[in-house]
Amino acid sequence: GCCAHMRALAVFVAVLAVASAAGASSSATQLAALCGKQSLQTVKDFHDCGQHLAAKGSHAQAEAAFTLGLALRSTSAQLLAGRARARNSLGAWSSALEDALASIRSDQDAPDAYVEASRACDSLGLAPLAAFYWERAAQRGSKAPPERRGTKTPPDMEAAVKAYSHAISLASQDKEPELWAALHHGLGSAYGNRQHGIRAENVELAIKHLQLALEARSKLANGSGGGSSGDAALKLATTQSNLAAAFRDRSLGSRADNLEAALRHYKQALQVRTAERDPESHAALQTNLAAVYAERQVGARADNLEEAIFRLKAALAASGREANPVRWAERQSKLAAAYGQRLAGRRDANIEHLIRHYKQALKVWTKEAHLANWAESQLGLAMAYASRDKGARDDNIDKAIRYFDRVLQVHNLENSPVKWAGVAHQLAGVYAARTRGRRADNLDAGIRLLNDTLAVWQTRDRNKWAASLADLASLYEQRAGAGLSSRQLAAIARQPANSSAATQEACISAEDDDSSDESNEAERAQAQWEVKLANIELAIATYRQALQVLSKAERPEAWASASL
Description:
The chain contains 27 helices and no strands. The protein is mostly helical. Helix 4 runs antiparallel to helix 5 and helix 14 runs antiparallel to helix 15 (279-295). The longest helix is centred in the C-terminal third of the chain and has 27 residues, at 521-547. The chain is elongated and about 110 Å long.
């Protein structure tokens, strides 16, 4: 009849729609044959066939059968649960979770969908949700818990947002306050770690749900909601910590207010996570507090930096190198950086503290095991020695050069040109300040580095390109008064009087052997004068290039240097 014809037509359309998922061999006719039936026409037919195929381990064909059945009734709880089971078996856990949740929305009393939701959450790294859905399945008669995969993969945040949102709709705040708070905490944390969508919106949702969890857990910790007070206090501290992180990450609202909220919540968590009770968590909280104080906008900058240093010292005292070498090294590096920013105390003493803590970090940050961290610590030491007052200045400059060279072994023009250019520019300045060795050679080394940075900055950052030009011009200017070797002077003297500045620069760079004196005093004097003029011309030309970009309003110091 008409109804039979319409059912057949619907099946045909469904077959076409799922051809890619079911494969060419999974048409309704072929599925019927695999299930020992003449045809599949009703929802029950497809469900029974899918169950039969799943029992045989033919999960792809089972998925196809359930999908064809869902074309007839898209809200069938049994078909959705069946397809969730097939997809879990095929490793399509996100799709399995979506099917399981849709099945529960259609029928909250059927246990199979809860089992499949639990399996999917376990595979997606969402252990708390796996436990939640298994508990719901057990309440509905499921006897054997689903097999746990024990996955070590990072949690799937998109799946977490969907599953936590769904779980919250099933939980009662009045009857299950601890569970309700835990689910909001989980959803808030998932939004905080979510990569998809607009970041600012995710952070706002994180704060919203964490604040709901905080309110509920505060009541539980105060004894008005039952449960162990110690356990409730620890859970409350966890929510305080996550909420602090969300406020620190927040881009909406006042930055100053957000940082104050972060401080407040971290300090609340610290009252529970003491160094005696939980040393590593205490150290982590102290480290986070230090980071917020370093950014803080309220209060005196010097006082905030002192507090940051105090917090990092507290973190190191709570958890030593033996407990967690990597975290220990991270805190040593942060403390070194904090001393580098410090406004209080003597400058020379702060630099010595900085050097000591970076060297401590390097006991863990080896080049072989932690290359990036090793390079950053080498850079910190290079900058410290370049500005160090204690000890012989020449020795400090040479140490700075060695540390800069190590950094440039890691960051080169090929693998990280921008990082290389920034470090090379700093190294050029150190060579310019060097007094050990021949002055002209040191200036030449700085000039070569700055010339190489120009190619990096020219197409990436015009302001940095101009700054490199201004510093390069300064080195040319300094080289105009530097002593040159006799061979360099002789080479210049041999050039025609109208030779270009670039030609003279090439001569200066090419001739650097001072083994003999080939020119008489008159030639030397003439060559010295020509070299001075060549460098002055190079300085003027380079300053003029810099002034094409440098703005007096935006970069007054660099502009003034180039204008002189």
